[in-house]
Automatic annotation (TrEMBL), chain A:
Belongs to the binding-protein-dependent transport system permease family. The lineage of its organism: Bacteria, Bacillati, Actinomycetota, Actinomycetes, Streptosporangiales. The keyword Glycosyltransferase does not apply. It comes from the Bacteria. It comes from Nocardiopsis coralli. This is ABC transporter permease subunit. It is a multi-pass membrane protein. InterPro entries: MetI-like, MetI-like_sf. SUPFAM superfamilies: MetI-like. The chain crosses the membrane at residues 12-36, 67-88, 100-124, 130-151, 187-214, 234-258. Residues 65-255 form the ABC transmembrane type-1 domain. Gene3D superfamilies: MetI-like. CDD domains: TM_PBP2.
Length: 265, 323
């Protein structure tokens, strides 16, 4: 306890809440409230309605949600496989090789996402590989962007992993494949499911690279939210955003259950 | 978990995707061989595309190598304005995040109250939401027909309210501060939990007041986390696109925005590639500085151990002795 004076403590906490609530708690509440209203020009929203959510259920928005979920699942699975493989192989290298792998796999985080999108567009609009205008290019972009985070999580988990389990398994005669699949990967399962949640959330909300290269027949939900708000339909956009957040939280919650169960084993 | 080693076969859950997982190193095959497939995949979808951007920016209409595009684009007022706006927004947002993150972290860690932990967790959930939601919410709050102006016109009876900054760089800065503060807050809170509370008690019993303890005990300990968080926010805000896109401001053109409008709205790929190369070079340089700072300043028990235990041990000793 840093401040012993009661009055000072109370005033510090008041200032904290005065800064914290408008800045962090209010935005999420505002989106939720707006998605249920027809009008908001005074202090409080007015005209309770569910019609923005009805707009989600029929028509292209449900399609956009499906597109987003499919893209996020594909990107997360690919990113987990690639990221885990890369992290495991980087871990068995020396410190120098490890640094090179770290730098390579964290590169997509450092490069602006818009540039990642532009790069894929430029590279795959001309031979030898033509992917421009396909769904494939969206999958690739999302996978590239989230693989860095999968790599980072798995790499950090490997650092914390006690090597003694794998050593015991090996000393009991388990071949490296058996050790990997029956000892190391199960031990990594909690962090793998955490990484999966992160990848899914990031891919669900990805807009920058997607704006650069989504084909008309594969419009993810963030793009729908942007087109809605861009033409002034802020309330409908909020409803879409709530659906996006709810889906993301639901999947992350399901994955955290996997994590807890894996942790208890 | 500890039950795994003695009875591996019956107790261990099935691996998630046995067929797709990385194959284990086989005896006789050097370790680096297993690093080749992921690196090749990365080369195909990251390095080759980025190379294509740089190549496009350096290729003249006749196919020969030229820097003419750079001379041309870098001289335009549009590019210079975008560069100035980008740096201004990024620096202001970073400064704001550092001040705010430090203040909030100090309160959460050292002047706790019921609910302060929940506040920390709420900030954590921000990291899993897309950034543009913040802009959307701020448009409702401070937009020209937003809540703040609505309250103002209700109270004063004026026709329009005074809040009209969402279409200016300040709107972008406010949104970025809101969204990026967690990136400063998290490492700081982690650093504060490692702080030896005995140091605070000693300083306090020797008569130091709160402000002095923060200045001479807490801040030196938290400095690495502050530097790391600040550098990360600087890179992220240089790269941020969705927040700027959602404000709908025509005047706020940052470098990523310029890349988007040149490539998609004007189909001018050469200009887009030049701007993209400059933007990426800027961000990657800053990111390398960030990596250098974090790996050198990384706390003893803080992040992942990177260079083996022995080196960490010496680091720990050195840091403790210095502190």
């Amino acid at each position: 306890m840093l401040v012993h004076d009661r009055l000072t403590r109370r005033s510090i906490q008041t200032v904290f809440l005065l800064v914290f609530l408008p800045l962090f708690a209010l935005p999420l509440a505002v989106i939720l409230a707006a998605s249920l209203s027809t009008n908001w020009s005074g202090a409080l929203p007015s005209g309770f309605t569910l019609e923005h959510y009805a707009a989600v259920l029929n028509g292209p928005t449900l399609d956009a949600l499906r597109v987003s979920v499919v893209t996020a699942v594909i990107a997360s699975v690919c990113a987990l496989v690639a990221g885990t493989w890369a992290a495991l192989s980087a871990h068995s290298l020396g410190p120098r090789g490890r640094r090179v792998m770290d730098a390579l796999f964290m590169l997509p985080v450092a490069v602006p996402t818009v540039v990642v999108g532009l790069a894929l567009l430029v590279a795959f609009s001309s031979p030898p590989v033509l992917l421009n205008g396909t769904q494939m290019i969206v999958f690739i972009a999302h996978t590239v962007l989230v693989t860095a985070f999968a790599y980072q999580s798995v790499s950090a988990a490997l650092d914390r992993l006690d090597p003694v389990h794998a050593q015991v398994a090996a000393s009991l005669g388990a071949r490296p494949a058996r050790t990997l699949f029956l000892v190391r990967l199960p031990l990594l399962l909690p962090s793998l499911s955490g990484a999966a949640g992160l990848c899914f959330a990031l891919s669900m909300g990805e807009l920058s690279a997607t704006m650069m290269l989504y084909p008309p027949d594969w419009t993810p939900l963030p793009v729908r939210i942007f087109t809605a708000t861009d033409r002034g339909a802020l309330f409908t956009g909020s409803a879409f955003a709530v659906v996006l957040m709810a889906t993301t939280l639901l999947v992350m919650f399901a994955l955290s259950l996997v994590r807890t169960r894996a942790g208890h084993r | 978990m500890t039950a795994l080693a003695p009875h591996p076969a019956p107790r261990v859950p099935e691996p998630r995707r046995p067929a797709e997982g990385p194959p284990p190193p086989r005896r006789g095959l050097p370790a680096w061989v297993w690093a080749v497939p992921p690196v090749l995949a990365l080369a195909a979808v990251v390095l080759y595309p980025l190379g294509a951007v740089v190549a496009e920016s350096l290729t003249g209409p006749d196919g020969a190598a030229t820097t003419a595009h750079y001379a041309e684009v870098l001289a335009t007022e549009r590019f210079r304005d975008a560069l100035a706006t980008t740096v201004f927004v990024a620096v202001c947002a970073t400064a704001g995040c550092l001040v705010l993150g430090l203040g909030l972290a100090l309160v959460i860690a050292f002047v706790p109250f019921p609910g302060s932990r929940a506040a920390g967790r709420l900030v954590d959930t921000y990291l899993s939401f897309p950034s543009f939601l913040i802009t959307l919410a701020l448009l409702f709050l401070y937009g020209t027909v937003g809540v703040a102006n609505g309250i103002w016109t209700d109270v004063t009876g004026a026709d329009t309210g005074p809040f009209d900054f969402m279409a200016t760089p300040w709107g972008v800065i406010l949104a970025e501060i809101t969204f990026f503060t967690p990136f400063v807050l998290r490492p700081l809170l982690a650093a504060f939990t490692q702080l030896d509370t005995a140091q605070l008690e000693v300083a306090s019993s020797l008569g130091a007041r709160g402000g002095r303890i923060v200045r001479s005990v807490i801040l030196p300990e938290a400095f690495p986390a502050l530097v790391a968080g600040g550098a990360l926010v600087l890179v992220l805000s240089l790269n941020e696109f969705a927040i700027v896109l959602f404000t709908g401001a025509k005047d706020v053109v940052t470098l990523p925005m310029l890349v988007y409008s040149a490539a998609i709205l004007e189909a001018d790929y050469t200009t887009a590639c030049v701007v993209a190369t400059v933007n990426a070079a800027l961000s990657v340089c800053l990111y390398l500085l960030y990596r250098a700072a974090t790996s050198r300043l990384r706390g003893p028990a803080g992040g992942p151990r990177k260079h083996g235990t022995q080196k960490d041990g010496t680091q720990k000793g050195g840091r403790r002795a210095g502190a």
